[in-house]
TrEMBL record, chain A:
It comes from the Bacteria. The modification O-(pantetheine 4'-phosphoryl)serine is found at residue 37. Pathway: Glycolipid biosynthesis; KDO(2)-lipid A biosynthesis; Lipid metabolism; fatty acid biosynthesis. This is Acyl carrier protein. It comes from Microvirga lupini. One of its GO terms (cellular component) is cytosol. 4'-phosphopantetheine is transferred from CoA to a specific serine of apo-ACP by AcpS. This modification is essential for activity because fatty acids are bound in thioester linkage to the sulfhydryl of the prosthetic group. One of its GO terms (biological process) is lipid A biosynthetic process.
TrEMBL record, chain B:
The keyword Lipid metabolism applies. PANTHER family: 3-OXOACYL-[ACYL-CARRIER-PROTEIN] SYNTHASE, MITOCHONDRIAL, POLYKETIDE SYNTHASE-RELATED. GO terms for molecular function: 3-oxoacyl-[acyl-carrier-protein] synthase activity. Its EC number is 2.3.1.179. The lineage of its organism: Bacteria, Pseudomonadati, Pseudomonadota, Alphaproteobacteria, Hyphomicrobiales. This is 3-oxoacyl-[acyl-carrier-protein] synthase 2. It is an enzyme of class 2 (transferase).
């Protein structure tokens, strides 16, 4: 896993209280990791904080899996 | 109206986590007060509080992780965590676990708080000012709303009956139990999880209550002596945190399932001072009328009251006004009455106070022991009433009355009777 993937995984484990081995690339935050709609809002905020990047609402809506987050952040984060 | 009994008790207080830890330390005359160590206090007039002893859960310490998942705790202010802990304790104690849809719909929640998530509001305000609106968590609002204590409890235990919350400052806990009992008496529910919860120990609350001149400021270096109701040297209350929750149940419902019955709620009275936003009415009229209303509802003679758990916050004005109102209502029976203020030991738990003190009143009946008014070295007035100074006292108690009075001039009295 890349550095970005490791940091994303750490945030997801911390915020959703899930086991690290469940946080795989195609894991869906809501369907697989037990998040609700508020959790996903907070996850995006945590990604913004960690990667010092602004994620607009329309982009946030496309981030539904761990892999989506990693790909977005690898492309957009400094 | 249907009879309402208490079948479960739960609490988290500055004396410990759980009813047993709190009660044994209360009877021993221990104080839960100490200097505040978790935030800056050097510029505050009051630098002390009664805080919950935290730890791994052993020896009466409070381990929040036992009662709420860490990822959920992160989203809410501590008053919700305390309510979750005390509610689970009370439900376990009662043995009531509604599983069927009908039982779940017959079981409700009525948990109040005086100031709810004021600590989280304070922190989020700082975030908004320093970092802007995009840094406000989606959990900011649901984790601070007062009725979310009851919301979380209902979700955790599948309680689908009436879901209500009370906000009446320092009378909250008493009003919550009284109102919940009425919902059962009137048939809206068979079982109610009811009480109060509070997590007020933060810089903003201390600064605010100190500005009202409500807090003790003369005992910053001697915190365990600060809460001293009725004593000549009292100078204000000591803020406390925690929760008290009871399971209330319709009498026949409790009997049919063989539940342990602690006490019956026989009287509940309410009144308003219509006088001042923070000061009690000078003639104690509001206090007198809410006790009188509770007595009328209980349909007992005043001489049947064996014990009063006083509001007694250790403020210069309030203690004596309440004492006079109790003397007035007791009349010739004052001489055989015992009245103590357990706030001397646990501090003032604001919206949780009435519920915690109702539980203390019930335990006093159960064990035939009256908890003491600690630090009462020199009473400021003469009274025929036994104020139970410094040491617990053995006495059979069949009927107990618990008083709560709040900012805004809102008063509540509960009368409980032992069920044999």
């Amino acid at each position: 896993m890349s550095d970005v993937a490791d940091r994303v995984k750490k945030i997801v484990v911390e915020h959703l209280g899930v086991e690290a081995d469940k946080v795989v690339e195609n894991a869906n935050f809501i369907d697989d990791l037990g998040a609700d709609s508020l959790d996903t809002v907070e996850l995006v905020m945590a990604f913004e904080e960690e990667f010092n990047v602004e994620i607009p609402d329309d982009a946030a809506e496309t981030i539904v899996t761990v892999g989506d987050a990693v790909r977005f952040l690898e492309k957009n984060a400094a | 109206m249907r009879r309402v009994v208490v079948t479960g008790l739960g609490m988290v207080t500055p004396l410990g986590s759980g009813v047993d830890a709190t009660w044994s330390r209360l009877i021993e005359g221990q104080s839960g007060a100490g200097r505040i160590a978790d935030f800056q206090v050097d510029d505050l007039a009051c630098q002390i509080a009664c805080q919950i002893p935290r730890g791994d859960g052993s020896d009466g310490t409070f381990n929040a992780d036992e009662w709420m998942e860490p990822k959920e705790q992160r989203k809410v202010d501590p008053f919700i965590v305390y309510a979750m802990a005390a509610s689970t304790m009370a439900l376990r104690d009662s043995g009531w676990e509604p599983k069927t849809y009908e039982d779940q719909c017959a079981t409700g929640v009525l948990i109040g708080s005086g100031i709810g998530g004021i600590g989280g509001i304070y922190e989020a305000s700082a975030t908004l000012i320093e970092r802007g609106p995009r840094r406000i968590s989606p959990f900011f609002i649901p984790g601070r709303l007062i009725n979310l204590a009851g919301g979380y409890v209902s979700i955790e235990h599948g309680l689908k009956g009436p879901n209500h919350a009370v906000v009446t400052a320092c009378s909250t806990g008493s009003h919550a139990i009284g109102d919940a009992a009425r919902l059962i008496a009137l048939g809206d529910a068979d079982v109610m999880v009811a009480g109060g919860t509070e997590s007020p120990v933060n810089r903003l609350s201390i600064a605010g209550f100190a500005a009202c001149r409500a807090l003790s400021t003369n005992f910053n270096d001697d915190p365990t002596r600060a809460s001293r109701p009725y004593d000549k040297d009292r100078d204000g209350f000591v803020m406390g945190e925690g929760a008290g929750i009871v399971v209330l149940e319709e009498y026949e419902h409790a009997k049919a399932r063989g539940a342990k019955i602690y006490a019956e709620i026989i009287g509940y009275g309410l009144s308003g001072d219509a006088y001042h936003i923070t000061s009690p009415s000078e003639d104690g009229d509001g206090a007198y009328r809410c006790m009188a209303a509770a007595l009328k509802r209980a349909a007992i003679d005043v001489s049947e009251i064996d014990y009063v758990n006083a509001h007694g916050t250790s403020t210069p004005l309030g203690d004596e006004l309440e004492l006079k109102a109790v003397e007035r209502i007791m009349g010739n029976a004052a001489g055989k009455l015992s009245m103590s203020s357990t706030k001397s030991a646990v501090g003032h738990l604001l919206g949780a106070a009435g519920a915690v003190e109702a539980i203390f009143s019930i335990l006093a009946m159960r064990d035939g022991v009256i908890p003491p008014t600690i630090n009462l070295d020199n009473p400021s007035v003469d009274t025929a009433i036994d104020l139970v100074p410094k040491q617990a006292k053995r006495k059979e108690i069949n009927v107990a009355l618990s008083n709560s009075f709040g900012f805004g001039g809102t008063n509540a009295s509960l009368i409980m009777r032992r069920v044999s």
